[in-house]
Write a structure and sequence with these properties.
The complex is a heterodimer of chains A (about 110) and B (about 110). Chain A has strands at about 5, 10-15, 20-25, 30-35, 45-50, 55, 65-70, 75-80, 85-95, 105, 110. Chain A is mainly β and about 110 residues long. In chain A, the strands form two sheets. In chain A, strands 2, 4, 5, 6, 9, 10 and 11 form a seven-stranded mixed β-sheet that branches. In chain A, a hairpin with a 2-residue loop joins strand 7 (about 65-70) and strand 8. The radius of gyration of chain A is 13 Å and the shape is globular. Chain B has about 110 residues and is an all-beta fold. Chain B is built from no helices and eleven strands. Chain B starts with a strand and ends with a strand. The chains are: A mainly beta (about 110), B mainly beta (about 110).
């Protein structure tokens, strides 16, 4: 185990649903990340939080809404998604200093019908 | 934008043989290069990394080399075993307000028993 947990592990939702993904890290890190992993594409960085402040939003559609209530927890709120949003959503954390490794959670496999 | 190219996309080797995966990055400011292994149903796990002030690093059967001038880095796995079968990702870390990874597209390694 990497010290980063994600729930749920699998999620199926309709296009009109609202759901949330949860990530928790037990490593004392101060930066957290959301990535999208689609088949045959590089991991796409979606959001970065450093010290609970959003420092990066990589042109992600507004139907994805992140929330970082504290340095250990990160959420991704989902609403009115599209079928092309189906993917593995990975959370990662790191200590925000030069060249620090990122530790990944197991991911949430999301299917949008 | 900045990118990381990774080759090959798939690689099959006989058990006991060596495997080599190569990556090329575009941002000359990149200074940290991790390699991740992702097994089915799991998140990426760091297996080895190298920093820009080092040319080579080895950890048992795994080694990484870095050529900063050519902006190339490679993963070498010797004496491959069936449990080495997985998808391997390279990444280059660059600072632009926060420390950000650019990932390669992944290499699916199959070790044939």
């Amino acid at each position: 185990e990497t010290g980063v947990t994600q729930t749920p592990r699998h999620l199926v939702m309709g296009m009109t649903n609202k759901k949330s993904l949860k990530c928790e890290q037990h490593l004392g890190h101060n930066a957290m990340y959301w990535y999208k992993q689609s088949a045959k594409k590089p991991l796409e960085l979606m959001f970065v939080y450093s010290l609970e402040e959003r420092v990066e939003n990589n042109s992600v559609p507004s139907r994805f809404s992140p929330e970082c209530p504290n340095s250990s927890h990160l959420f991704l709120h989902l609403h009115t998604l599209q079928p092309e949003d189906s993917a593995l959503y990975l959370c990662a954390s790191s200590q925000e200093t030069p060249g620090q490794e990122q530790f990944f959670g197991p991911g949430t496999r999301l299917t949008v019908l | 934008g900045e990118n990381v190219e990774q080759h090959p996309s798939t690689l099959s080797v006989q058990e006991g043989d060596s495997a080599v995966i190569k990556c090329t990055y575009s941002d000359s400011a990149s200074n940290y290069f991790p390699w991740y292994k992702q097994e089915l149903g799991k998140g990426p796990q760091l297996i080895i990394d190298i920093r820009s002030n080092v040319g080579e690093k080895k950890d048992q059967r795994i080694a990484v080399t870095l050529n900063k001038t050519a902006k190339h880095f490679s993963l070498h796995i010797t004496e491959t075993q069936p449990e080495d079968s997985a998808v391997y990702f390279c990444a280059a870390s660059t600072y632009s307000g926060t420390y950000k990874y650019i990932f390669g597209t992944g290499t699916r390694l199959k070790v044939l028993a």
